[in-house]
Amino acid sequence: MSVMAFHSVAGVETIREHFPALRRVHHGRPVAYFDGPGGTQVPHQVADAMRDYLFHHNANTHWRYPTSHETDAAIADARQAAADFLDAHPDEIVFGANMTTLTFHLGRALGRQWSAGDEIVVTELDHHANVDPWRALTRDRGVLVRMAAMRPDTGELDWDDLARQISPRTKLLAIGAASNAIGTVNDVERAAALARGVGALVFVDAVHHAPHALVDVGALDCDFLAASAYKFYGPHMGLLYGRRERLAGLDLPKLEPAPADPPESLETGTQNHEGIVGTAAAIDFLASLGGYERGGDRRAALQRTYLALHERGQALVERLWDGLRAVPGVTLYGPAPHRPRTPTVSFSVAGFTADQAATALAEQAIFVSSGDFYATTLVRRLGRAQDGVVRAGCACYTTEDEVERLVQAVGALVKQRRERFDTPA
Ligand SMILES: Cc1ncc(COP(=O)(O)O)c(C=O)c1O
Question: What stretches of 177-261 adopt beta strand conformation (E)?
Answer without folding.
Answer: 201-205, 224-228, 238-242
